[in-house]
Amino acid sequence: MPVRKLPTLDLKRNYDRVRNEIREAVDKVLESQHFILGPEVKAFEAEVASTLGVPLAVGCASGTDALILSLMALNVGPGDEVITTPYSFFATASCITRVGARPVFADIDPDTYNFKVDHVLEKISTKTRAVIPVHLFGQMVPLETLAPELRSRGIALVEDTAQAFGASRHVGGEIQHAGGVGDVGCISFFPTKNLGAYGDGGMITSTREDLAMSLKSLRVHGSTETYFHETVGINSRLDEIQAAILRVRLRHLQEWNEERRQAAARYALLFREAGLMERVRPPVEAPGNTHIYHQYVIRCERREALQAHLESEGISSRVYYPLCLHLQPCFSNLGYREGDFPEAEALSRDCLALPIFPELKAEEQEWLVSSMEAFYRK
Alpha-carbon Rg of the chain, whole angstroms? Predict the structure, then answer.
């Protein structure tokens, strides 16, 4: 009898739902033999721009490159400071150092895991050139007060939307889309993302048409005409095949995100029914937000022991993130110490990401929560 297993993400189940559409799209590109910045990339850029309600979308090679290219286009460099969160994937901070600027961190909200806007405002100095809010795990940072304040001070707003394509926020009767509020939005299409490619890929969205020429030039070595370079850019292009795949997947994204939301709601119900709410804190969806649950990250007691117990049962889980950015060895020169950002540090010690994906079955979630209940009864 096969051993029962539950992965944190099952890409094969998702591929089974779109297999024929994907193969047809890829075959179309192969028949065209047009692989670099062709019609599929152009069409996908237009579809993303339309989805997010922005005038501009520029494909690139990865979410990390999207961040770097954005800062380059905004002329952020040596001597500048960029404020962001200490609780995020490494690229959020490394992109700042890559352009020669200095990361400055602001602590997080213990419920939503996103940085606190009031803490960001306290960190602004005469050297601040940009702020990078991270819409972490699929939930938007409330930007309605931050965006106009930054605009009034001439500080760029660079949204890290790597984990939140499709997330939104209701503000004053209007809908704000992640990646559609700031000067630029930076998207990752890494395969594990809600809108994932079958390889690397990224995109920059912008509310500023004046950045279009710069971004398109910077992604091809700073050139607008072959062999003529106005500036020094990088080589960062979204592949035509990946764009074709992403166009197919974009058509299904809203349905898949809703299935993730249903799975998240089921987890919360199961925790309550199992009497685990004193041991487990489910993620909090802030009022006005539409959380798309790229990850389902709980806070829990005895994390390491719980994770080991689940693994012994065949249930996978992950820790995002075990060491905050300000404590990473490569950033020791910034002068931060343990205790500087207590909320982020506390979260890194008790967070645990449980399986979440559109095809997750109710009985699998029931099995997982039952296993957690048995662990905490010991």
Answer: 21
Task: Work out the burial of residue 90: count CB atoms within 10 Å of its CB; fewer than 13 is exposed, 13-18 middle, 19 or more buried.
Answer: middle
The domains of the chain, with CATH numbers, are 11-106+113-247 (3.40.640.10), 253-377 (3.90.1150.10)
d(CA 245, CA 18): 10
- Which distant-in-sequence residues (6+ apart) come within 8 Å of 219 by Cβ? 58, 59, 60, 65, 69, 233, 234, 235, 236, 237
Categorize the per-residue pLDDT at 225 as very low, low, confident or very high, splitting at 50, 70 and 90.
Answer: confident
Q: What is the C-alpha separation between 39 and 34, in angstroms, rounded?
A: 8
**Contact of 294 with 194, CB cutoff 8 Å:** yes
Q: Is the pTM of this model over 0.85?
A: yes
Q: Please state, in angstroms and rounded to a whole number, the distance separating the CA atoms of residues 203 and 184.
A: 10
- Asked whether residue 363 carries a pLDDT value surpassing 50, the answer given is yes
CA distance 132 to 158: 5
What are the helix (H) ranges across the chain?
11-32, 39-52, 63-73, 91-98, 117-123, 146-153, 212-218, 240-273, 303-312, 342-350, 362-377
Q: Could you report the per-residue pLDDT of 236-261, keeping only the tens digit for each?
A: 999 999 999 999 999 999 999 999 99
CA–CA separation, 328 vs 71, rounded Å? 22
pLDDT at position 3: 67
> CA-based diameter of the chain, in Å?
69
Q: Which residues contact 221 (CB under 8 A, 6 or more apart)?
A: 229, 232, 233, 234, 235
Residues forming a β-bridge with 115: 108
Contact between 8 and 353 under an 8 Å Cβ cutoff? The reply is yes
Question: Of residues 1 and 168, which shows the higher confidence score?
Answer: 168
